[in-house]
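Protein modeling request. Please complete all fields; requests missing the sequence field cannot be processed.
Requester role: graduate student
Desired output: 3D structure, C-alpha cell encoding
Chains: 1
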Amino acid sequence: MTKTPPPAQSVPVQIHQSDAHIVLAAPMPGLEPQDISIVIAGDKITLHGSYRGSRQEKEDILVAEWTIGPYTREVVLPQPVNGPLTNATYGNGVLVLAMPKAQEESDDGHAEFQIEVVQATLGQRIGHTGSELRPTTTAEHRRRMAAANEKQKRQ
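Delivered output (155 residues):
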C-alpha cells in the first residue's frame, strides 16, 4: 500500500540585506541538494523541496512531528533581484540565496534552477563571482578554483 505524500509544508525564512544584496535563508531539513528548486522572478521567490518519503514511512516510528518535505514557500522581496546572478548554497539542511539587487527596472531578473550537488548533502549554484558581479556557472567557478589551487601548490 502506497502512502500519499503529506501536503507541502511552508518554510520559515530569514531575509536580510546589504547595499548590494538581499540574502534569504530557509531551513529545508532532510533533502538532497538536487531535491530543491528555486524560481526567481523580479521581486518574487518561489522555493520548492521535493518529498523524501522513503525514509519516513516505517511503521515503527514512535513520534513524527515533522516530515522530510515536501516544502514550499513564496516570498515577495522589498525590491527586485537579479536571478541569473544569484548564488545558492545548501548545507546542514539550510538553503541560502545571495541575490544581487537589480540595478535597473529593465534587468531580466528571471531564473529557474536546482541546486547542484557538490558533496553528499552539500550543494551550490554559482551565479556570480565575488564583488565583480559577472555571470558564471558553478562548473566554471570550480575550474577556476582548481586552477588557482594548482598554481598555489606550485609556488
